[in-house]
Amino acid sequence: MSFWIFEEIAKGIQDDMSASIENYHSLFWNREAWDNTHRYLKCCGIKSAKDWTKYHVDIPKSCCSKPIEECLQMTEAVTYRTGCLRSAVLLLKSHVHTISMSALLIFLIILVSFLLVLCILSKMKRERIGQN
């Protein structure tokens, strides 16, 4: 079941990347997100640098994997070879244990809080019945 959920999450990430790549030049926060992703994950595009040309967008300078003087003219030859989707999914997988343990802890805290509320309400009800 977790495999199915993880595949859905990966599909969602891919859909978000596809939608945002088209707005690379028009939205500042989009450009920042892509540039930071390229630099941090050392990747380019969704599956490869070809994604930028597929969406009729110039390859960003943040995809450059060579010395800056070689990247004055951005082509696929000077970009990172891997796409960002694969790197993002691998990063997510590396943190899945922490995320699931955090979710479990939060669930347990909520459950204990709910049980305490039930106990307090029960005690208040008994006290109210005892006063009558």
From TrEMBL:
Record carries keyword Transmembrane: yes
Classification via Pfam families: Tetraspanin
InterPro entries associated with the record: Tetraspanin/Peripherin, Tetraspanin_EC2_sf
Topological type in the membrane: Multi-pass membrane protein
Bilayer-crossing regions: 99-121
GO cellular component: membrane
Protein location: Membrane
Keywords per UniProt: Membrane, Transmembrane, Transmembrane helix
Name assigned to this protein: Leukocyte surface antigen CD53
Organism per entry: Habropoda laboriosa
